Amino acid sequence: xxxxxxRPRLEARRRRGSTPRAEILDAAAxxxxxxxxxxxxxxxxxxxxxxxxxxxxxxxxxxxxxxxxLLSETISAxxxxxxxxxxxxxxxxxxxxxxxxxxxxxxxxxRWNLGALYLLPELRSERFEEFRLRRAxxxxxxxxxxxxxxxxxxxxxxxxxxxxxxxxxxxxSDQGSAPDEADHLIPDAVLHMLGWHGDPxxxxxxxxxxxxxxAEDSYQVGTV
Amino acid sequence: xxxxxxRPRLEARRRRGSTPRAEILDAAAxxxxxxxxxxxxxxxxxxxxxxxxxxxxxxxxxxxxxxxxLLSETISAxxxxxxxxxxxxxxxxxxxxxxxxxxxxxxxxxRWNLGALYLLPELRSERFEEFRLRRAxxxxxxxxxxxxxxxxxxxxxxxxxxxxxxxxxxxxSDQGSAPDEADHLIPDAVLHMLGWHGDPxxxxxxxxxxxxxxAEDSYQVGTV
Lengths: 224, 224
What we know:
The structure is a homodimer.
Chain A: H1 20-34, H2 42-49, H3 53-59, H4 63-86, H5 92-109, H6 129-149, H7 160-175, H8 182-193, H9 200-223
Helix pairs in contact in A: 1-2, 1-4, 4-5, 4-6, 5-6, 5-7, 5-8, 5-9, 7-8
InterPro entries (chains A, B): Homeodomain-like_sf, HTH-type_TetR-like_transc_reg, HTH_TetR
GO molecular function (chains A, B): DNA-binding transcription factor activity; transcription cis-regulatory region binding
Pfam family, one (chains A, B): TetR_N
């Protein structure tokens, strides 16, 4: 592996991550979520990694580029999954369940609770327009899938599953972590709130099979 | 009305609010939600009100006292309602519906989207312990009511109604405002997600009557 550009490190590696870029992202994610975005300087991030500030600027032009990279991480995987789900012929409740399950799991598994940064006023600036558009795209796909699942009595509820999934961010923020059962609890509640009265256990089984199959396909594509 | 302590204003009143304290809170709420808490100084708040910084300190000892007062506003009214609901003998689905309806409405009606500040890392400090405890108390009352409503198939979902109600904060943040129908949509979805299969329209009617009755009682208590 290349050591990458920049001057040699001041200290031995302190952070998680296999590359300097990944270490900068990990340090920034910790500082942004525990001290706040506005209160964190690129100098503080460089110090936390154990590199010079000038070396940090070889990887990221500015602090908002680091934030943009971190935010993008939180939506890239579910957006990739959505594209895969679109070409399967599973019923909509199975696709929606699989998406909600996967997304809750990835939001809970991330080392730092980056979704807490979605409400930053800084995100309303033009700099983050692309991120906002991509997150809106994810939201719309949730809404379209939910509209296919919703019964007549609950058709207006199609806007809510995306919100319920993202509430794991608030659960993590209040309670330190989300309970292990959140990854079933939330997709089950998504089906209920859409007025869907079938057996969640059968949908869960089909969603698990689907996610396994798609993960295998991605692996094969990635290694060919 | 007393003009309150402090030196005379530099300028004519610019802010909403019938007292200097209310004007300071309105200005701070705008700045905290649009520029960020860490990026807003007490000087900037005083400038926005059109008073001297020293006058601001007659009302609030420090910036975190202003934040604490603003956050408390977001939970005081629903906590008061919970206390009133506890002494009615309405069925739990009506009490839960009334609470969720009232809370969504007050979170949407507030001029600034103050709930967006719940995720600030600053709130984890000891200074905000009392606020955290009071918000946890509100959350627990939601959970208890929801557990009474939940069917066996959805009993674990009792932790989610509080989260769904607070998701109007995220809807406001993303879309500028929540749709008018959110105040029915979310309480309806709360009943559905708890596996409750009755007619939401009848519960909504009973909840509306209950809220009217309680508002009248408060008025009478307040004016006696």
